[in-house]
């Protein structure tokens, strides 16, 4: 599973709680992106997740679910990304909910399809920051330390730097990337143009594009080649 993810440079993230037409979905899935990630911070239900997955499944494209709500975990995805919000002040979002999920559903979990992500949330105004009580006022050194703790202490295969709705500090992201030796660095947040997509692609292994899909589809589509052409 992780070997597949490490091949991805560009990923579109689609929110089950937001509407997308069949025409727009077709353009997204045929754009040349490497994968579709399904997930969101609120309004995620079993029904809307199933509905979106079934539409994406018409295309020969990897589709993974980023789990944010136990009630919305749907079988049939290629993989399941499990966020551990490292800079959360509420331990429920680091390991508490994970323990509860395993206690409740352990016998049903397809362990070979699960990948844990060391999340670092960096936008204080985002839903995920408010929900988890994340300490978002991190220096570069602090962000690097969280990433290294994920990689070297917890042995997590993915570090996800989440700016959720705003374009992040590319110097901070780049320095974090340089200090990692094994973990795959994913960046998400505020990519609403090909220029920003290219900048993010230069400092991260995988770039996730989400909100602009719903606000300006053409700009979203332009991000694919911007990422693929970036060194």
From TrEMBL:
<feature type="binding site">
    <location>
        <begin position="160"/>
        <end position="165"/>
    </location>
    <ligand>
        <name>sn-glycerol 1-phosphate</name>
    </ligand>
</feature>
<keyword id="KW-0443">Lipid metabolism</keyword>
<feature type="binding site">
    <location>
        <begin position="210"/>
        <end position="211"/>
    </location>
    <ligand>
        <name>sn-glycerol 1-phosphate</name>
    </ligand>
</feature>
<keyword id="KW-0594">Phospholipid biosynthesis</keyword>
<feature type="binding site">
    <location>
        <position position="15"/>
    </location>
    <ligand>
        <name>Mg(2+)</name>
    </ligand>
</feature>
<feature type="binding site">
    <location>
        <position position="41"/>
    </location>
    <ligand>
        <name>Mg(2+)</name>
    </ligand>
</feature>
<keyword id="KW-0479">Metal-binding</keyword>
<keyword id="KW-0444">Lipid biosynthesis</keyword>
<dbReference type="InterPro" id="IPR038597">
    <property type="entry name" value="GGGP/HepGP_synthase_sf"/>
</dbReference>
<comment type="similarity">
    <text>Belongs to the GGGP/HepGP synthase family. Group I subfamily.</text>
</comment>
<dbReference type="InterPro" id="IPR039074">
    <property type="entry name" value="GGGP/HepGP_synthase_I"/>
</dbReference>
<protein>
    <recommendedName>
        <fullName>Heptaprenylglyceryl phosphate synthase</fullName>
        <ecNumber>2.5.1.n9</ecNumber>
    </recommendedName>
</protein>
<feature type="binding site">
    <location>
        <position position="190"/>
    </location>
    <ligand>
        <name>sn-glycerol 1-phosphate</name>
    </ligand>
</feature>
<dbReference type="Pfam" id="PF01884">
    <property type="entry name" value="PcrB"/>
</dbReference>
<keyword id="KW-0808">Transferase</keyword>
<dbReference type="GO" id="GO:0016740">
    <property type="term" value="F:transferase activity"/>
</dbReference>
<comment type="function">
    <text>Prenyltransferase that catalyzes in vivo the transfer of the heptaprenyl moiety of heptaprenyl pyrophosphate (HepPP; 35 carbon atoms) to the C3 hydroxyl of sn-glycerol-1-phosphate (G1P), producing heptaprenylglyceryl phosphate (HepGP). This reaction is an ether-bond-formation step in the biosynthesis of archaea-type G1P-based membrane lipids found in Bacillales.</text>
</comment>
<feature type="binding site">
    <location>
        <position position="13"/>
    </location>
    <ligand>
        <name>sn-glycerol 1-phosphate</name>
    </ligand>
</feature>
<comment type="subunit">
    <text>Homodimer.</text>
</comment>
<keyword id="KW-0460">Magnesium</keyword>
<keyword id="KW-1208">Phospholipid metabolism</keyword>
<comment type="pathway">
    <text>Membrane lipid metabolism; glycerophospholipid metabolism.</text>
</comment>
<dbReference type="InterPro" id="IPR008205">
    <property type="entry name" value="GGGP_HepGP_synthase"/>
</dbReference>
